[in-house]
Q: What sequence folds into this?
């Protein structure tokens, strides 16, 4: 018997050792989404993609307040509304919510992208609860952030892009849920890094699934394919399903970079190579300038989105129109070269968002400069890294600095305050601000930005936090203090 007891004790010890890492993972303070996602193509009365999600969210109350409800964002509602052919045949919404088998009341705000789920019992600070939701939405055709169509413009092939496609838990801040309106001219998302386990079922004809994090095919039978997507510690998840792209791959700084581009037989179509080369050089440039990229993979894809490019954790999308336009231009012509330069800047910009937005998060609606200005400044970091003419970068930055300078507009403002100056302020002027700061701080800037990136990794930065971290680096640098005061409202009374 003794032997068995010793055996039992040693087994318990082994089990305790095995359990320790899991116990730690339990306490990482992150929300955990488990989703069963099904995509079904509907042909009549028009071609549409139906998205159905059965999900549970293991919610962690990371605030000092008790929560009586949870706020989820249904951005598919905004995409359908913004879609020119959305209209009557498309809708989205949380159909059911429950906790521990008990139904929960679902209340939709006047802005229907804001959904409140009332808890039967308050969730105290530091506590967890698991909420189940049933959700349905149509994926609009067209150019929204989530869309269904073809990147080749062909009827025989298809691509479905899913972004902000699931009910996303909002952030509780200063005693309330942060739920600003949907804003299509820029980003407006604000979420915590979370863990995701997704099972995706979709028509078998979609041969490739590309997602934030890791994606693996599980099975394929009876016209349906099943994929498993695991995304750990990511701010959100984007998934693209396609049967019309080719892929090139490379590796740098321990990161696998995959370039996915619209399949065609034109030998002059070099976008795949350009996406890959630019993303590889960008990862190298930003690792050096800001710090390491924490995920194993980065996917760059052709996309039907309206914007030039779009960021998501571990995945960036580039408007396929650039590549299509490039094929029509005479090779090596000045216009073709300008367009190639533009494509490189877009790829570098979106890649920089992996660092600022993906890893260092921010309230993209109220303080867009914290990711957009950094991503635009990232373009200059990339250009100088690949040996582009530094004088031209300098000239661009001088021009950006002048734009809207007369209006006295600072960059740390919301789209409501900036109005028509939003783009010039948060992209161009913001990039110029960081560039000037780099010039007047020298080595101190590199040290500061690396420290800032490390301190806010997997967290959300704000302007106050930025200024607080910057303060010791510029306490004896009056020129830098002047630059900060010119561009940031919140620095007006600091120096
Ligand atoms: Zn951007």
A:
């Amino acid at each position: 018997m003794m032997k068995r007891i010793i055996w039992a004790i040693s087994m318990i010890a082994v089990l305790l050792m095995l359990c320790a890492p899991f116990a730690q993972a339990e306490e990482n303070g992150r929300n955990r989404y488990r989703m069963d996602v099904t995509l079904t193509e509907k042909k009549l009365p028009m071609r549409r993609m139906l998205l159905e999600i059965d999900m549970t969210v293991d919610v962690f109350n990371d605030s000092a307040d008790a929560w009586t409800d949870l706020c989820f964002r249904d951005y598919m509602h905004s995409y359908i509304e913004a879609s020119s052919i959305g209209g009557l045949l498309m809708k989205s919404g949380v159909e059911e919510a429950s906790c521990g088998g008990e139904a929960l009341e679902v209340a939709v705000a006047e802005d229907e992208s804001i959904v409140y789920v009332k808890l039967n019992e308050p969730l105290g600070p530091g506590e967890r609860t698991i909420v189940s939701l049933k959700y349905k939405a149509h994926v609009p055709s067209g150019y929204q952030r989530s869309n269904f169509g073809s990147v080749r413009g062909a009827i025989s092939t298809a691509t479905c892009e899913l972004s902000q496609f699931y009910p996303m838990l909002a952030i509780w801040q200063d005693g309330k849920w942060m739920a600003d309106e949907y804003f299509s001219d820029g980003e407006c998302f604000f979420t915590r890094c979370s863990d995701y386990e997704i099972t995706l079922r979709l028509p078998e004809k979609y041969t490739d699934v590309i997602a934030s994090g890791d994606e693996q095919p599980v099975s394929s039978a009876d016209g349906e394919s099943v994929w498993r997507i695991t995304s750990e510690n990511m701010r959100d998840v984007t998934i693209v399903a396609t049967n019309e792209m080719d892929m090139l791959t490379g590796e740098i700084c321990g990161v696998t970079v995959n370039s996915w581009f619209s399949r065609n037989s034109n030998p002059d179509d070099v976008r795949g190579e350009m996406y890959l080369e630019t993303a590889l050089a960008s990862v190298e440039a930003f690792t050096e300038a800001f710090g390491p990229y924490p995920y194993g993979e980065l996917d760059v894809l052709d996309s039907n989105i309206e914007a030039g490019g779009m960021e998501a954790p571990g995945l960036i999308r580039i408007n396929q129109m650039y590549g299509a336009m490039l094929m029509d231009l005479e090779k090596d012509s000045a216009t073709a070269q300008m367009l190639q330069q533009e494509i490189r800047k877009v790829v570098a910009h979106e890649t920089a968002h992996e660092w600022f937005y993906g890893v260092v998060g921010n309230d993209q609606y109220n303080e867009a400069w914290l990711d957009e200005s950094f991503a635009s400044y990232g373009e200059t970091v990339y250009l100088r890294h690949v040996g582009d003419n530094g004088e031209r970068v300098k000239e661009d930055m001088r021009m950006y600095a002048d734009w809207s300078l007369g209006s006295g507009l600072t960059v740390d403002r919301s789209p409501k305050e900036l109005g028509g100056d939003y783009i010039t302020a948060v992209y161009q002027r913001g990039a110029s601000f960081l560039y000037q700061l780099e010039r007047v701080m020298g080595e101190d800037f590199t040290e500061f930005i690396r420290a800032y990136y490390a301190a806010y990794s997997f967290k959300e930065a704000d302007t106050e936090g930025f200024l607080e971290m910057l303060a010791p680096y510029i306490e004896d640098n009056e020129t830098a203090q002047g630059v900060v005061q010119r561009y940031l409202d919140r620095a007006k009374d600091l120096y």
Notes: Residues 1-25 have pLDDT under 50 and may be disordered. DSSP finds twelve helices and 23 strands in the chain. Residues 42 and 48 are 5 Å apart (CA to CA).
